[in-house]
Amino acid sequence: MTVPSGRRSSTFTRLLRYGFVDPSHAEKLLGEDALAAVRSDPVLLDALGAAADPDLALLGLVRLAEAQPDAEARRTLLTTLVSAKPLRDRLLGVLGASEALADHLARHPQDWKSLVRYESSDLHPDIAEFERGLADVTDPVSLRVAYRRCLLSIAARDVTGTTDVSETAAELADLATATLRTALRLAQEAAPEDAAACRLAVIAMGKCGGHELNYVSDVDVIYVGEPAHEGIDEGEAIRAATRLAAHLMRICSETTVEGTIWPVDANLRPEGRNGPLVRTLSSHLAYYHRWAKTWEFQALLKARPVAGDLALGQEYVDALAPLVWQASERENFVTDTQRMRRRVIDAIPAAEAERELKLGPGGLRDVEFAVQLLQLVHGRTDTSLRSPTTLAALAELADGGYIGRTDAFQLDEAYRFLRSLEHRIQLFKLRRTHLVPEDEADLRRLGRSLGLRTEPIASLLKEWKRHSGAARRIHEKLFYRPLLDAVAHLAPGEAGLSPAAARDRLVALGYADPAAALRHLEALTNGVSRRAAIQRTLLPVLLAWFADSADPDAGLLNFRKVSDALGKTPWYLRLLRDEGAAAENLARVLSAGRLAPDLLLRAPEAVALLGDPAGLDPRPRAQLEQEILAAVGRAETPEAGVVAARGVRRRELFRTAAADLIGSYGTEDNPAEEDRGALVDRVGSAVSDLTAATLAGTLRAVVRAGWGEELPTRFTVIGMGRFGGHELAYGSDADVLFVHAPREGVDEAEASRAANAVVAEMRRLLQLPSADPPLLIDTDLRPEGRNGPLVRTLGSYAAYYRRWSQTWEAQALLRAEPVAGDAELGRAFVELIDPLRYPAEGTTEEAEREIRRLKARMEAERVPRGQDPNLHTKLGRGGLSDVEWTVQLLQLRHGHHEPGLRTTRTREALAAAFEADLLDQEQARILDEAWVLAARVRNAVMLVRGRAGDTFPSDTRELGAVSRYLGYEAGHAGDMLEDYRRTTRRARGVVEELFYGAAL
Length: 1000
Description:
By secondary structure, the chain is mostly helical. Helices cover about 60% and strands about 5% of the residues. The strands form two sheets. Strands 1, 2, 3, 4 and 5 form a five-stranded mixed beta sheet that branches. Strands 6, 7, 8, 9 and 10 form a five-stranded mixed beta sheet that branches. Strand 2, helix 14 (about 235-255) and strand 3 (about 265) form a beta-alpha-beta unit. The N and C termini lie far apart (about 100 Å). Mean pLDDT is about 90; it is low at about 1-5.
């Protein structure tokens, strides 16, 4: 028929209505001679329109018809197609969903007949049925053809809805089982001597073992071998079994003229790809008893004998089962498992993360990991939880009360959708992929294949987002929500965790006192108040964060204490509920050690800092001084003024500690700070500024109470040591010198009495008993040390340094910097000491020898007995003292000529020494790395123990907390100590060269 120009034919319009995207091309295909007998049959167009991709289905049908050997065969195909609805639905459904299976049918045009039968036995075939389908296989090529023929029937049942996603996955696993058996038969027929020499069992792992395989997936296996009988040497038997196993893998994996089937992957075996391909049962057992990691026991949940000597395979499974169900008793079991999940997520390329169905957040692996984790914890005592199939195990967990029924239902629904989407993606080209495509044609086909016929692309993306969001949300609380049900009053008929099961779960999470943890949960969540309701919402996620710390018990206890103190405050729970960062930040702070929680519990309102994006930024010294001086000005007595100043100091110490912990641990949205030196510098500057502001406030309070607005002598405080270097740690004393200069017309004796009175009163006020952290003033670096006066005039300092100064005092003055009091007097003191600490002629050989003798004596005498000097952060090998004395010797020698060296900060001076070519880049890097590490260890010890220390804790849990702060995973404290020794050993080598050697 001729269609007038500019008008569409009625066929074109009909094809559009049937869902064809390219009606013009479809019209041409329908006009092909191959379809002449049926092109006008309305039944055909209805069936094509029901396919996921009508265009693809029509093209595949034309190719199949054209591939028939003769006209009679083509007539049989088309007649059967229009007369038999089951065939029509199956065949066109497959052709519209799978380009790869259409290719197979075009190459093997008689295979369509495998879809004609529609009896009950065809609906749910078992392994035996698939084995019959592969019975005539004689080589790898015929195996591929027969495999695709069987796959064709599975896909037909899948796309027509005859089987659901779990049944399809089970059929794919059964077909894989039959394929492995056939491949092993071919290998044995090719090497009958090897077959006679050994017993070989093939153990399916992963999705094949779990009876939930994809269309295209690696088939994970483990091999077990034994001699066929007593007269055969074990070694020869294992070599024979290895040859058979390797041949089996090649038969399935190699590419032939008919393509490949799937890779057979044996990397889950002991020692992975580095271990022997086949082991005896006793060798397997020895490995799992001694060397296996947590994830290897998790993998064994899916172990299932599928081919070869099934009796030997069952012996393997039975022998290892007790070890599998004891895995949850291993130290750091939950954190190890969850960490492995995070590593998988971190390994996803950034460009693919948003399209990753399997491995991404809210993906299939989230559900599978969560279910397996719960199985391992509770399957130890409840044998009803041991199904290797994810959806079956999920149902068992819900029936037993280990997962809430609503959560289980939503998770089941999400998992089914995601697996169905994964199946349809892989079915198209029979390629192994878990990425949602970006092409609109692909998305349209996928949406229609899942029954989303109205706006298939938009509907598909919406459903995907909904289900992955649900999976992610439920996964995050799945392990923790039932713990709350265990201490709650459930509705009649609602199953919950038993107390014993709740204790098992808490122990698996790392809680040392599960009974106390359950009491805390009950106290926090019981009741019908709004507070209890919000706590029930918050706690599942908080428990997860506590479990990711070194001391979950302390985290939960501290949270209860803070909640008891602030629970009736309207903003507290609202802050944690509505500001996601606040809750996670609080969990990190409360479970990382003693210092930060102690500071917070003395002033719980400081928790508000954790919800403010800028709340953890250190405050400038000027702001701190302004606040403290204002508080002192409002106080009626100097004691009250200093109490106010120490209160500000407590809050700011908490701010600093919280920022340090969160920066060291990282959060879900913000990874840990990579520049660890920046963390140390931030703490050192913040604590030093805070100490200076506190001293300024204390000085103001003392002067105001005793003399009004003006002291009869100008007075300044000089920071020394780490204080002057802006490097104070949390527990450091404040090393200072006190300097005064009588005002004009004031008698020097009167001025001296006033200055001494100020010093004595400042020390008294700062040491008054208080709940706030003490601030101890250390004046031992003053002239004449402990035997000298506490305070001197500027002139007295000048006279002493001119006449009596020793080398160590010049070295100590390298860290001198005014921190409080009269700024002009402070500058005058700096002018006085600069020629001493940066001598024009540098250091003398005698002075350098004296410095080295003093350093050696300190190393020999001051490290406490019984402590490993290699692990002492201050005085040990390659520690703080080694690095600082080396840098200070460079400053004494070259500071006069190199302006960059005139700084009180160790790292700045080290960088300046490198810029001045006084040491090479590698030496500078090694020294800086060691200094930063030692400083962080000291900070960690204070944060964890709540008291200062210069060496690693001996308590296992405290040592673990230090290692977590330093960025090590749970259970790797030994690695931390080894890394510390290695880092400081390298630094000591540089110190030996630069400080003790001839390089200077």
